[in-house]
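Progress note, sequence design subtask.
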């Protein structure tokens, strides 16, 4: 049963306006009341303005009629309705309605936020680094954005299937295995060198050496090709070697995931190799359905929707002319599996925007094959590039790719400096742990607070600042509220007295707190976590404005109790929101 939770005040107003609209004219049933937050009142409804033309009435007249039908009886939820401008309605809620809402959210361990995705299976493909290669800056955004979406959908009740589509299959492994075989003196296992991360750095370097050898030495190239065939045929020794390389790489990915605090576990590792045995069937099905066709010995899907620069249809390579399968083949088998076996209701693919065409073609083919139907949602969740301080795609000073671990170290060092400056007496081990949470949080927040499609610059100094729209600022806002609550005495239960009049800053804060569920609806609809980040930032500022003008600890009862309730709800909402971004909310900072 989908749980609806506490109906947001916005929803309450929406219902009231809709009902009034129908009383004015029955044909308005189902029309959008167009309610939103307003600067001049708690909410504003624009329905009259929108519907006036169609109903051949002056907007002001229509607005007045709706206002009259909104009838404000004693004790009703609405306190004031006023027509304004050409046909807006300004709507204020009764103070008690807002306090009751605060109390209802506080009483619920999910803050009254419903689980509207209950019963829906959402498959999220994210992170997906490549085996025998180090995770680099290019894997940061997919990992962070994908994880936040997994958290948001999970919180909303969806049955989330995380898939880490590891690049663990392909001809490059034949080359690497052959090279390792011919160089038994090489040491690269975690057990032989200091960490899983360095094992994968070593493999990455060995892979490059193998590649160079392959290009320079024809006989080695032949032996490497034979090794690829052996791997594909399932030759026991070769497969064991491959498994070893995959296992070592997975350890290194695990170390990054643990540090980033993402949800991915080894159970989520479903690499390209998993689909190997489904490839032949997938091709057969596409051919028999007439979706894929022969082209000079290769099997391809020719797009009916996209043409290339030459005017020819864009091509998806289903099987190469030498019988081999590639990236396209695997994604076709994967989408088929996720729909027909996993029974996904929604599929998300979190990869950078350069793969847009690839996914567009995969989705088109899946639709033509009848796997993808209109009841299944499918999205390529694409994103922009991380830039360096010079505004160009991020590279090391030497022009190489930036290792993800180095990037995280830089951010944690930045956070350590600002936290140490603010808390000079903090013992070293506490400083370490706070700096780690603040630094990692800063990296995630810098990413998630930027609109996905935009590029952004990786700037450890700016992103770990205590002021401005940063993760550290939000963690600090949360920690400060916790400290107020500690001073209030942990035992103070939050009892809300609904008859107390609301101060303007209390009202702003309470209305902001009530908006969280609505923002999560938006994040789920648009797949844009920056909406949640922006919401939390506004919430933290609403809290500051409240705290500046409404003393909490020294206020007389029952005002004090109500304000403490607002503090509780603010701290819990911030912590919950940060958690949905995958960011820790330490008690102190
Ligand atoms: N391994 C790929 C890369 O590093 C990303 C895979 C994304 N997922 C997918 N189903 N194609 O670029």
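Output:
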């Amino acid at each position: 049963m989908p749980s609806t939770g506490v109906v947001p005040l916005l929803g309450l107003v929406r219902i009231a306006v809709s009902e009034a609209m129908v009383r004015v004219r029955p044909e308005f049933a189902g029309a959008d009341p167009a309610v939103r937050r307003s600067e001049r009142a708690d909410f504003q409804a624009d329905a009259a303005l929108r519907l006036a033309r169609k109903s051949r009435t002056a907007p002001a007249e229509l607005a007045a009629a709706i206002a009259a039908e909104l009838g404000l009886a004693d004790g009703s939820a609405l306190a004031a309705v006023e027509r304004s401008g050409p046909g807006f309605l300004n709507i204020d809620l009764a103070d008690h309605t807002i306090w009751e809402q605060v109390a209802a959210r506080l009483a619920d361990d999910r803050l009254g936020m419903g689980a509207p995705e209950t019963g829906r299976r959402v498959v999220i493909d994210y992170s997906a680094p490549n085996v025998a290669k180090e995770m680099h800056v290019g894997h940061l955004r997919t990992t962070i954005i994908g994880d936040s979406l997994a958290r948001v959908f999970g919180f909303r009740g969806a049955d989330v299937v995380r898939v880490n589509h590891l690049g663990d299959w392909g001809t490059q492994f034949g080359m690497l295995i052959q090279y390792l075989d011919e160089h038994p003196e090489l040491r690269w296992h975690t057990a032989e060198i200091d960490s899983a991360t360095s094992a994968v750095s070593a493999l990455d370097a060995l892979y490059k050496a193998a590649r160079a050898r392959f290009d320079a030495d024809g006989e080695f190239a032949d032996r490497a090709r034979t090794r690829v065939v052996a791997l594909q045929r399932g030759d026991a020794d070769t497969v064991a070697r491959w498994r070893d390389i995959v296992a070592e790489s997975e350890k290194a990915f695990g170390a990054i995931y643990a540090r980033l605090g993402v949800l991915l576990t080894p159970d989520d590792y479903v690499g390209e190799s998993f689909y190997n045995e489904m490839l032949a069937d997938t091709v057969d099905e596409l051919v028999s359905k007439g979706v894929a066709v022969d082209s000079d010995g290769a099997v391809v899907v020719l797009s009916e929707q996209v043409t290339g620069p030459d005017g020819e249809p864009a091509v998806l390579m289903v099987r190469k002319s030498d019988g081999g399968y590639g990236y396209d083949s695997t994604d076709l088998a994967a989408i088929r599996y996720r729909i027909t076996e996993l029974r996904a209701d929604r599929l998300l693919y979190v990869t950078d925007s350069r793969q847009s065409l690839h996914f567009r073609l995969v989705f088109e083919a899946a639709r033509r094959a009848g796997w993808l139907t209109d009841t299944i949602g499918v999205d390529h969740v694409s994103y922009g590039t991380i830039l360096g301080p010079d505004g160009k795609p991020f590279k090391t000073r030497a022009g190489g790719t930036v290792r993800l671990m180095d990037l995280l170290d830089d951010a944690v060092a930045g956070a350590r400096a600002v936290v140490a400056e603010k808390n000079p007496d903090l013992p070293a081990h506490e400083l370490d742990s706070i700096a780690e949470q603040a630094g990692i949080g800063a990296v995630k927040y810098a990413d998630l607070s930027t609109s996905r499609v935009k590029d952004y610059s990786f700037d450890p100094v700016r992103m770990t600042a205590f002021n401005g729209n940063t993760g550290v600022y939000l963690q600090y806002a949360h920690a400060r509220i916790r400290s107020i609550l500690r001073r209030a005495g942990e035992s103070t239960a939050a009892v809300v007295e609904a008859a107390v009049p609301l101060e303007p800053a209390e009202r702003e804060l309470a209305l902001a707190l009530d908006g969280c569920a609505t923002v999560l609806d938006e994040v789920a609809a648009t797949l844009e976590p920056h909406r949640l980040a922006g919401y939390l930032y506004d919430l933290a500022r609403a809290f500051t404005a409240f705290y500046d003008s409404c003393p909490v600890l020294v206020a007389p009862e029952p005002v004090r109790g109500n304000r403490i309730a607002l503090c509780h709800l603010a701290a819990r909402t911030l912590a919950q929101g940060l958690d949905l971004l995958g960011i820790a909310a330490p008690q102190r900072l």
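The longest helix spans residues 236-260. Work on this subtask will continue into the next period as scheduled.
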